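Thread: "does anyone have the structure for this chain?"

Original post by V.I.:
We have the sequence but no experimental structure in hand. Need at least a predicted one for the grant figures.
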Amino acid sequence: MLRQELSKRGVLVGGAAALASLVVPTVSQAAPKSMIAVLESEVVILDPHATTAAITRTFAYHVFDTLFSMDMAGTIHPQMVDTFETAPDGLSWRFKLRDGLSWHDGAPVKASDCVASLKRWARGDALGKMLMAAVTGIEAVDERSFRIVLREAFPLMLDVLGKPNAPVPAMMPERILPPGDERIKEIIGSGPFKFKASAWRPGDRAVLERFEQYKPRAEKPDFLAGAKVVKVDEVVLRVMPDDATATTALIAGEIDYMQYLPFDWLDKLEKAPNVNIMALTGLDMFQGNFRLNHATGPFADRAVREVLWKLVDQGEVLQAIGIPDRYLVKNCPSFFMCDAPLSSTEGAATARLAIEEARAALKKTAYKGEPVVFLSVAGSISQTAGTVLADNMRKAGFTVDEQVMDWGTVLARRAKKEGWGIFPVYANGIDMMSPLTHFYIGNNCANYAGWSCDAVISEKLAAYARAPDPAMRKRIAAEIQVEAYKDTPSVMWGQFSRPAGYRSRVKSIVQSSFPMFWQLTLDA
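Reply from O.Q.:
Generated one for you, tokens below.
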């Protein structure tokens, strides 16, 4: 299962006492002031079921809660759920919610809310769809219990309900769920923070205030699992699109936390007083990808897509971005991350920079010089990665139309099957470490931007989900990778760390690429 594939990560809850504690303290009634944070981007989409964007996932884990959650070793634990039981044949699961759970508007959390949330979430999530394909019914048994009945055993039940990958299976009141694919209009969850709608200033800030009625679990905190005890009054999410402005504010003490530090400021930041840097490795690193549009345009042709493997040198891309060696893997050929359980080099022999070979290969395809629309996010490291590839593509004979815009516009453009050919992006290692969660493999033959669909990958994904042990899953993952190198759903441009920075007055912050603002405290 997924939890068996996740290697032990370098995630530490600050302070040995926090890890060793057997009794979780109650929420402090004298919590100090505000924490001011600058995240990777503005939170534009507040509906956690509506997008795979990581920034929305960060928002979701603070405002909403989940039935199950993952710890730092990859084990799934109950979160909103108190107890659960499974029928001997594995075809019926019954879940009982913890007592005393309430929504931010004061209403009690009911099993019917969770049933409605699960059904809504599953419509847009690859693993959710896989679960629903095995389901014959989901129904509330009483106000605190619900049942999932299966037509066939589904060994990944807990892994799916507790997955940390976006879209997160967040729970919300049934009454706020709109029809169809509309986004929710009210932001009401049951998480440790409340979204303060009256303080929301798009383009400037969003405010998360402590939910006084939140009932933490009794277990010690461990990554996304266990107690989420909020010890600050509020977290202010400031919008600062300019890295230099945000970094200067961090050094000056005007903000407390910055999720992504600019690489060209790291030397200065490492010497700055009262600034700490998170240097993360393994699955807390990121994987950069060029996502291709298989539906329309030049990359609808598999032979044209394959040419790109000869036009990317990961070292060249990461050097152009300016990532220091201590924050990168020089060349990672694995779709499922390096320094990870499913790392593999299978199928990767074709992935080497060879522009003249690419030019010759492109001439043998049906490509006739049609423009490749290349979407990039202005000022981002992805834009730099895209510029490097675009230059190599032109050398190989492609006509490239680079279009630079903000991330929100890219999200809107990529949702349409026409009008784009490729865009660069990067994702957290936890999202890319398994065939079932990898954005561009797990969403094979799904209604997901890029629309890659390979029958061999579909067959092997099903076999992977049924595999009885880690050894077989590793073997099948390698086979999936071989096919992915042929079908080219995406092309990796590197594995690297995006170090975060925080002021020394911030104590007990979780050392993770997932921003988590429960547990931490602030000195005066």
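V.I.: this helps a lot. The two ends are 44 Å apart (CA to CA).
O.Q.: and Residues 467 and 473 are 6 Å apart (CA to CA).
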